[in-house]
Amino acid sequence: MKTRISFGRGPVAAVAVAGALVALVALALPMAQAVRAETARAETVSAEAAKTDAGAFPVLTQAALVTPKAAGAAMLGLARAGQRLVAVGERGIILLSDDRGGRWRQARVPVSVSLTAVRFVTERTGWAVGHFGVVLRSDDGGESWTKQLDGAAAARLVAQTAAELARLGAPDTDGLRETSLRLVEEGPDKPFLDLFFANEREGIIVGAYNLAFRTQDGGRSWTPWMRRLDNPRGLHLYGITKGQGPAAGDLYIVGEQGLLLRSTDGGERFAALPSPYKGSWFGALTMADGGLLAYGLRGSLYRSTDRGESWTAIDTGVASGIGAAVALDGNRVVLASQTGDLLTSRDGGATVQPAAARKAPLTALADGGGGRLALASLRGVLTLDLPQTSQPVSSQPPAQGSVR
Question: Are 232 and 255 in contact (CB under 8 A)?
Fold first, then answer.
């Protein structure tokens, strides 16, 4: 609220000014009391969140079970770490392959929650995220992992940030305060669904209900980033990716109900873009020439050549949701549906053609190197030999008994 005072001359004006100042003090007192009350409330939330010990949730403290059946586990994310392939999935299972997917072995993982996505910025340093607000870091190419964040700690961070903003009198803190209250009340069950790291220090993680956190020290500390996103309805955030070529300075986030966000300042702020589709986007992929693909429900695929300002619908011929995509050499793209359909493109997604299909639902793709494609599925990790022509790819099941 802004109050304007017009200062005149003479005794009458002086009395008026004095009266106005008294009125301002009278207004300021309840406002200050309200700020103190909100601050106390937020600090109470922070204290309550601190009591939500991770030990109350065994999956956050129990290491992933090492099992010979890991090769057939539901895998949800894939990444390259140098020449190594790293797959993450249910119950904290992480698989490693050093022969382009021929054989897999389990890594040491300190939690047993389902992991949804993984990214490496060097051949040794990478992160994985998942359910219960878990964030893991590896500095040895995925051999071992350290937990850097979970839902209980995330709730504390949101509550502490809300308290500090209230103390400073920052505007529009109600949403963050309500988020912190909900996180504490519902417990640390919210998943992170994707992540982006620019280097070994700077990264952003996103997830359900507009959850977003940023780090600038490699994950040693995290800052709630929800207020930086133009997402007032708190829609789920399913994917985050960086632009390339002419769009190299951009970051894109996609989510449910057609949510499209773009940052042009390195992730400081994300503004909403007009969306050509009102269904959920499951991910986005950028091309070396600056092209951008967004894919999601019911085989939806849209392409933009102007950084998300306008879009062209691409006919995929697929009825199920497209949940994964990978850019290969040149403008070659491979996309996968949730029912096992594979689509390929040699023009950056402007047109797509059907390729081999798998019966297993596919969840993630990665370039395996040496002309091979790795596919995460609900039945383990598969590999495909990529053709040098436009012929459909041939599929290979995972090697029997390949996990040790």
Answer: no
